[in-house]
Protein backbone atom coordinates (compact mmCIF):
# COMPACT_ATOMS: atom_id res chain seq x y z
CA UNK A 1 0.00 0.00 0.00
CA UNK A 2 1.62 3.22 -1.14
CA UNK A 3 1.74 6.46 0.75
CA UNK A 4 1.25 9.14 -1.86
CA UNK A 5 0.88 12.89 -1.91
CA UNK A 6 0.60 15.59 -4.52
CA UNK A 7 3.36 18.13 -3.90
CA UNK A 8 4.06 21.22 -5.92
CA UNK A 9 5.37 20.57 -9.41
CA UNK A 10 9.05 21.26 -10.08
CA UNK A 11 10.94 20.85 -13.35
CA UNK A 12 8.94 18.60 -15.69
CA UNK A 13 10.66 15.48 -16.96
CA UNK A 14 8.05 12.86 -17.91
CA UNK A 15 10.50 10.02 -18.54
CA UNK A 16 12.23 10.45 -15.18
CA UNK A 17 8.82 10.78 -13.51
CA UNK A 18 7.67 7.48 -15.01
CA UNK A 19 10.87 5.72 -13.90
CA UNK A 20 10.58 7.09 -10.36
CA UNK A 21 6.90 6.18 -10.03
CA UNK A 22 7.42 2.72 -11.49
CA UNK A 23 10.29 2.09 -9.06
CA UNK A 24 8.12 3.15 -6.13
CA UNK A 25 5.25 0.91 -7.18
CA UNK A 26 7.57 -2.09 -7.41
CA UNK A 27 9.11 -1.29 -4.00
CA UNK A 28 5.86 -1.08 -2.05
CA UNK A 29 4.83 -4.74 -2.58
CA UNK A 30 8.23 -5.80 -1.25
CA UNK A 31 7.30 -4.13 2.05
CA UNK A 32 3.97 -5.98 2.08
CA UNK A 33 5.64 -9.31 1.26
CA UNK A 34 8.04 -8.84 4.18
CA UNK A 35 5.10 -7.98 6.46
CA UNK A 36 3.34 -11.19 5.37
CA UNK A 37 6.50 -13.19 6.05
CA UNK A 38 6.92 -11.64 9.50
CA UNK A 39 3.26 -12.24 10.40
CA UNK A 40 4.07 -15.92 10.90
CA UNK A 41 5.96 -14.98 14.07
CA UNK A 42 4.91 -11.46 15.05
CA UNK A 43 1.46 -9.83 15.50
CA UNK A 44 0.48 -7.44 12.66
CA UNK A 45 0.17 -4.62 15.20
CA UNK A 46 3.82 -5.02 16.19
CA UNK A 47 4.90 -5.22 12.53
CA UNK A 48 3.02 -2.01 11.73
CA UNK A 49 4.53 -0.32 14.79
CA UNK A 50 7.99 -1.31 13.56
CA UNK A 51 7.28 0.09 10.10
CA UNK A 52 6.38 3.54 11.49
CA UNK A 53 8.99 3.55 14.25
CA UNK A 54 11.85 2.96 11.84
CA UNK A 55 10.40 5.44 9.33
CA UNK A 56 10.38 7.99 12.18
CA UNK A 57 13.93 7.03 13.21
CA UNK A 58 15.26 7.49 9.66
CA UNK A 59 13.58 10.89 9.27
CA UNK A 60 14.79 11.97 12.73
CA UNK A 61 18.39 11.00 11.92
CA UNK A 62 18.30 12.86 8.58
CA UNK A 63 16.93 16.01 10.26
CA UNK A 64 19.72 15.92 12.84
CA UNK A 65 22.37 15.26 10.18
CA UNK A 66 21.19 18.06 7.87
CA UNK A 67 20.28 20.59 10.55
CA UNK A 68 16.78 21.13 9.09
CA UNK A 69 15.19 21.43 12.52
CA UNK A 70 12.14 23.25 11.15
CA UNK A 71 11.02 19.88 9.80
CA UNK A 72 10.24 18.80 13.37
CA UNK A 73 7.13 20.99 13.40
CA UNK A 74 6.12 22.03 9.89
CA UNK A 75 3.47 24.51 8.78
CA UNK A 76 0.39 22.45 9.70
CA UNK A 77 1.43 20.00 12.43
CA UNK A 78 -2.08 19.00 13.55
CA UNK A 79 -3.15 18.06 10.03
CA UNK A 80 0.13 16.25 9.41
CA UNK A 81 -0.28 14.15 12.55
CA UNK A 82 -3.89 13.34 11.63
CA UNK A 83 -2.63 12.12 8.26
CA UNK A 84 -0.08 9.95 10.06
CA UNK A 85 -2.72 8.36 12.31
CA UNK A 86 -4.91 7.56 9.28
CA UNK A 87 -1.94 5.99 7.48
CA UNK A 88 -1.03 3.98 10.58
CA UNK A 89 -4.58 2.65 10.92
CA UNK A 90 -4.72 1.85 7.19
CA UNK A 91 -1.36 0.04 7.35
CA UNK A 92 -2.49 -1.97 10.37
CA UNK A 93 -5.62 -3.14 8.51
CA UNK A 94 -3.57 -4.07 5.47
CA UNK A 95 -0.79 -5.90 7.32
CA UNK A 96 -3.46 -7.84 9.22
CA UNK A 97 -5.14 -8.74 5.92
CA UNK A 98 -1.95 -10.10 4.34
CA UNK A 99 -1.48 -12.42 7.30
CA UNK A 100 -4.45 -14.36 5.94
CA UNK A 101 -4.58 -13.69 2.18
CA UNK A 102 -2.07 -13.17 -0.60
CA UNK A 103 -0.57 -9.72 -1.03
CA UNK A 104 -1.75 -9.54 -4.66
CA UNK A 105 -5.34 -10.23 -3.61
CA UNK A 106 -5.25 -7.69 -0.78
CA UNK A 107 -3.73 -4.97 -2.99
CA UNK A 108 -6.26 -5.67 -5.74
CA UNK A 109 -9.17 -5.22 -3.32
CA UNK A 110 -7.53 -2.09 -1.89
CA UNK A 111 -7.75 -0.45 -5.30
CA UNK A 112 -11.46 0.17 -4.81
CA UNK A 113 -10.09 3.28 -3.05
CA UNK A 114 -10.71 5.66 -6.03
CA UNK A 115 -14.36 4.57 -6.04
CA UNK A 116 -14.68 5.14 -2.29
CA UNK A 117 -12.96 8.52 -2.59
CA UNK A 118 -15.40 9.57 -5.33
CA UNK A 119 -18.39 8.63 -3.15
CA UNK A 120 -16.95 10.38 -0.07
CA UNK A 121 -16.19 13.52 -2.09
CA UNK A 122 -19.79 13.57 -3.33
CA UNK A 123 -21.23 13.06 0.15
CA UNK A 124 -18.90 15.26 2.21
CA UNK A 125 -17.58 17.84 -0.27
CA UNK A 126 -20.75 17.98 -2.40
CA UNK A 127 -18.79 17.25 -5.57
CA UNK A 128 -20.95 16.42 -8.58
CA UNK A 129 -20.76 12.78 -9.68
CA UNK A 130 -22.36 11.96 -13.03
CA UNK A 131 -23.88 8.69 -14.23
CA UNK A 132 -20.65 7.64 -15.95
CA UNK A 133 -18.62 7.68 -12.76
CA UNK A 134 -21.47 6.04 -10.85
CA UNK A 135 -21.37 3.25 -13.43
CA UNK A 136 -17.60 2.94 -13.04
CA UNK A 137 -17.99 2.72 -9.26
CA UNK A 138 -20.49 -0.12 -9.63
CA UNK A 139 -18.16 -1.95 -12.03
CA UNK A 140 -15.27 -1.60 -9.57
CA UNK A 141 -17.37 -2.86 -6.68
CA UNK A 142 -18.43 -5.84 -8.79
CA UNK A 143 -14.75 -6.61 -9.35
CA UNK A 144 -14.13 -6.44 -5.59
CA UNK A 145 -17.04 -8.80 -4.92
CA UNK A 146 -15.65 -11.31 -7.44
CA UNK A 147 -12.25 -11.25 -5.70
CA UNK A 148 -13.74 -11.32 -2.20
CA UNK A 149 -16.21 -14.16 -2.71
CA UNK A 150 -13.86 -17.15 -2.17
CA UNK A 151 -11.79 -15.28 0.43
CA UNK A 152 -14.82 -14.50 2.61
CA UNK A 153 -15.77 -18.18 2.48
CA UNK A 154 -12.24 -19.17 3.56
CA UNK A 155 -11.16 -16.40 5.95
CA UNK A 156 -14.41 -14.72 7.03
CA UNK A 157 -14.76 -11.00 7.75
CA UNK A 158 -10.98 -10.53 7.88
CA UNK A 159 -11.20 -10.52 4.07
CA UNK A 160 -12.88 -7.12 4.30
CA UNK A 161 -9.79 -5.50 5.86
CA UNK A 162 -8.40 -4.31 2.48
CA UNK A 163 -11.67 -2.42 2.01
CA UNK A 164 -11.21 -0.87 5.47
CA UNK A 165 -7.72 0.10 4.32
CA UNK A 166 -9.20 1.70 1.21
CA UNK A 167 -11.72 3.68 3.32
CA UNK A 168 -9.00 5.00 5.64
CA UNK A 169 -6.72 5.93 2.74
CA UNK A 170 -9.63 7.65 0.98
CA UNK A 171 -10.15 9.79 4.09
CA UNK A 172 -6.41 10.56 4.03
CA UNK A 173 -6.70 11.78 0.43
CA UNK A 174 -9.88 13.68 1.28
CA UNK A 175 -7.94 15.62 3.92
CA UNK A 176 -5.34 16.40 1.25
CA UNK A 177 -8.10 17.94 -0.86
CA UNK A 178 -9.36 20.03 2.04
CA UNK A 179 -5.91 20.97 3.35
CA UNK A 180 -3.33 20.63 0.54
CA UNK A 181 0.15 19.56 1.65
CA UNK A 182 2.38 22.59 2.16
CA UNK A 183 5.29 21.00 4.04
CA UNK A 184 8.35 19.35 2.57
CA UNK A 185 8.96 15.64 2.22
CA UNK A 186 11.13 15.39 5.34
CA UNK A 187 8.45 17.03 7.50
CA UNK A 188 5.76 14.72 6.14
CA UNK A 189 7.93 11.65 6.71
CA UNK A 190 8.80 12.71 10.25
CA UNK A 191 5.25 13.60 11.28
CA UNK A 192 3.78 10.42 9.76
CA UNK A 193 6.42 8.28 11.45
CA UNK A 194 6.05 9.99 14.83
CA UNK A 195 2.24 10.04 14.92
CA UNK A 196 2.04 6.46 13.67
CA UNK A 197 4.56 5.34 16.29
CA UNK A 198 2.65 7.06 19.11
CA UNK A 199 -0.74 5.77 17.94
CA UNK A 200 0.40 2.18 17.48
CA UNK A 201 2.60 2.31 20.57
CA UNK A 202 -0.45 3.23 22.66
CA UNK A 203 -2.30 0.27 21.12
CA UNK A 204 0.60 -2.05 22.02
CA UNK A 205 0.68 -0.69 25.57
CA UNK A 206 -3.07 -1.24 25.90
CA UNK A 207 -2.67 -4.76 24.58
CA UNK A 208 0.08 -5.51 27.09
CA UNK A 209 -2.03 -4.12 29.94
CA UNK A 210 -5.19 -6.01 29.01
CA UNK A 211 -3.53 -9.16 27.68
CA UNK A 212 -5.52 -8.93 24.44
CA UNK A 213 -4.43 -11.57 21.95
CA UNK A 214 -2.94 -10.06 18.80
CA UNK A 215 -2.07 -6.80 20.58
CA UNK A 216 0.77 -8.16 22.69
CA UNK A 217 4.43 -7.27 22.14
CA UNK A 218 6.68 -10.23 21.33
CA UNK A 219 10.43 -9.53 21.53
CA UNK A 220 11.65 -9.86 17.94
CA UNK A 221 14.75 -11.82 17.01
CA UNK A 222 17.70 -10.03 15.43
CA UNK A 223 16.56 -11.24 12.01
CA UNK A 224 13.01 -10.01 12.57
CA UNK A 225 14.33 -6.66 13.79
CA UNK A 226 16.39 -6.35 10.63
CA UNK A 227 13.32 -7.01 8.48
CA UNK A 228 11.30 -4.44 10.45
CA UNK A 229 14.05 -1.91 9.80
CA UNK A 230 13.92 -2.83 6.11
CA UNK A 231 10.15 -2.23 6.03
CA UNK A 232 10.69 1.24 7.49
CA UNK A 233 13.44 1.97 4.97
CA UNK A 234 11.31 0.79 2.04
CA UNK A 235 8.40 2.93 3.23
CA UNK A 236 10.66 5.98 3.51
CA UNK A 237 12.25 5.39 0.10
CA UNK A 238 8.99 4.60 -1.73
CA UNK A 239 7.29 7.74 -0.42
CA UNK A 240 10.30 9.80 -1.49
CA UNK A 241 10.18 8.30 -4.98
CA UNK A 242 6.46 9.06 -5.32
CA UNK A 243 6.95 12.68 -4.27
CA UNK A 244 9.90 13.07 -6.63
CA UNK A 245 7.84 11.56 -9.45
CA UNK A 246 4.96 13.99 -8.94
CA UNK A 247 7.45 16.87 -8.91
CA UNK A 248 8.49 15.90 -12.44
CA UNK A 249 5.24 14.64 -13.99
CA UNK A 250 1.55 15.37 -13.63
CA UNK A 251 -1.10 13.14 -12.08
CA UNK A 252 -2.61 12.27 -15.47
CA UNK A 253 0.67 10.69 -16.52
CA UNK A 254 1.47 8.94 -13.26
CA UNK A 255 -1.87 7.79 -11.83
CA UNK A 256 -2.18 4.70 -14.09
CA UNK A 257 1.26 3.52 -12.93
CA UNK A 258 -0.04 2.87 -9.42
CA UNK A 259 -1.53 -0.38 -10.72
CA UNK A 260 2.01 -1.69 -11.11
CA UNK A 261 1.63 -2.53 -7.42
CA UNK A 262 -0.56 -5.44 -8.47
CA UNK A 263 2.12 -6.64 -10.90
CA UNK A 264 4.83 -6.39 -8.25
CA UNK A 265 2.69 -8.09 -5.61
CA UNK A 266 1.88 -10.95 -7.98
CA UNK A 267 5.53 -11.40 -8.98
CA UNK A 268 6.99 -11.30 -5.45
CA UNK A 269 4.10 -13.30 -4.01
CA UNK A 270 4.77 -16.06 -6.51
CA UNK A 271 8.55 -16.00 -5.92
CA UNK A 272 8.30 -16.06 -2.11
CA UNK A 273 5.04 -17.90 -1.37
CA UNK A 274 4.24 -19.56 -4.75
CA UNK A 275 0.90 -17.72 -4.71
CA UNK A 276 -0.74 -16.74 -8.00
CA UNK A 277 -4.25 -15.30 -8.56
CA UNK A 278 -6.73 -17.57 -10.31
CA UNK A 279 -8.85 -16.72 -13.35
CA UNK A 280 -11.86 -15.15 -11.57
CA UNK A 281 -9.50 -13.04 -9.43
CA UNK A 282 -7.79 -11.68 -12.55
CA UNK A 283 -11.21 -10.84 -14.00
CA UNK A 284 -12.08 -8.95 -10.82
CA UNK A 285 -8.72 -7.17 -10.93
CA UNK A 286 -9.39 -6.13 -14.54
CA UNK A 287 -12.76 -4.64 -13.56
CA UNK A 288 -11.23 -2.68 -10.66
CA UNK A 289 -8.35 -1.35 -12.78
CA UNK A 290 -10.70 -0.38 -15.62
CA UNK A 291 -13.08 1.46 -13.29
CA UNK A 292 -10.23 3.23 -11.49
CA UNK A 293 -8.69 4.42 -14.74
CA UNK A 294 -12.07 5.55 -16.06
CA UNK A 295 -12.83 7.52 -12.90
CA UNK A 296 -9.42 9.24 -13.20
CA UNK A 297 -10.21 10.02 -16.86
CA UNK A 298 -13.61 11.53 -16.03
CA UNK A 299 -12.14 13.63 -13.22
CA UNK A 300 -9.51 14.95 -15.62
CA UNK A 301 -12.20 15.81 -18.20
CA UNK A 302 -14.28 17.58 -15.54
CA UNK A 303 -11.28 19.59 -14.31
CA UNK A 304 -10.50 20.72 -17.85
CA UNK A 305 -14.13 21.73 -18.39
CA UNK A 306 -14.20 23.66 -15.10
CA UNK A 307 -10.93 25.49 -15.85
CA UNK A 308 -12.07 26.52 -19.32
From TrEMBL:
<keyword id="KW-1133">Transmembrane helix</keyword>
<feature type="transmembrane region" description="Helical">
    <location>
        <begin position="132"/>
        <end position="149"/>
    </location>
</feature>
<dbReference type="InterPro" id="IPR037185">
    <property type="entry name" value="EmrE-like"/>
</dbReference>
<feature type="transmembrane region" description="Helical">
    <location>
        <begin position="47"/>
        <end position="66"/>
    </location>
</feature>
<dbReference type="Pfam" id="PF00892">
    <property type="entry name" value="EamA"/>
</dbReference>
<feature type="transmembrane region" description="Helical">
    <location>
        <begin position="253"/>
        <end position="273"/>
    </location>
</feature>
<feature type="transmembrane region" description="Helical">
    <location>
        <begin position="226"/>
        <end position="246"/>
    </location>
</feature>
<feature type="transmembrane region" description="Helical">
    <location>
        <begin position="103"/>
        <end position="125"/>
    </location>
</feature>
<keyword id="KW-0812">Transmembrane</keyword>
<feature type="transmembrane region" description="Helical">
    <location>
        <begin position="279"/>
        <end position="296"/>
    </location>
</feature>
<protein>
    <submittedName>
        <fullName>DMT family transporter</fullName>
    </submittedName>
</protein>
<dbReference type="InterPro" id="IPR000620">
    <property type="entry name" value="EamA_dom"/>
</dbReference>
<feature type="transmembrane region" description="Helical">
    <location>
        <begin position="15"/>
        <end position="35"/>
    </location>
</feature>
<feature type="domain" description="EamA">
    <location>
        <begin position="161"/>
        <end position="291"/>
    </location>
</feature>
<feature type="transmembrane region" description="Helical">
    <location>
        <begin position="78"/>
        <end position="97"/>
    </location>
</feature>
<dbReference type="GO" id="GO:0016020">
    <property type="term" value="C:membrane"/>
</dbReference>
<comment type="similarity">
    <text>Belongs to the drug/metabolite transporter (DMT) superfamily. 10 TMS drug/metabolite exporter (DME) (TC 2.A.7.3) family.</text>
</comment>
<feature type="domain" description="EamA">
    <location>
        <begin position="17"/>
        <end position="148"/>
    </location>
</feature>
<feature type="transmembrane region" description="Helical">
    <location>
        <begin position="155"/>
        <end position="174"/>
    </location>
</feature>
<feature type="transmembrane region" description="Helical">
    <location>
        <begin position="186"/>
        <end position="206"/>
    </location>
</feature>
<keyword id="KW-0472">Membrane</keyword>
Amino acid sequence: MSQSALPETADQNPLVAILLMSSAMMLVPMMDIIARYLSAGLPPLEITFGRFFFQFAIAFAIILATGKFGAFRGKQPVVNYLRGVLLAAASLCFFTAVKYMSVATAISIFFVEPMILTVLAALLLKEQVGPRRIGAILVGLLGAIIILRPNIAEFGLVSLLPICTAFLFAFYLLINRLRPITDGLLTIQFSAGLSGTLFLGCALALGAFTGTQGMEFLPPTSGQTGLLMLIGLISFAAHGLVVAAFQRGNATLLAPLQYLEIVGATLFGYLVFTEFPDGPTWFGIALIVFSGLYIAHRERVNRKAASS
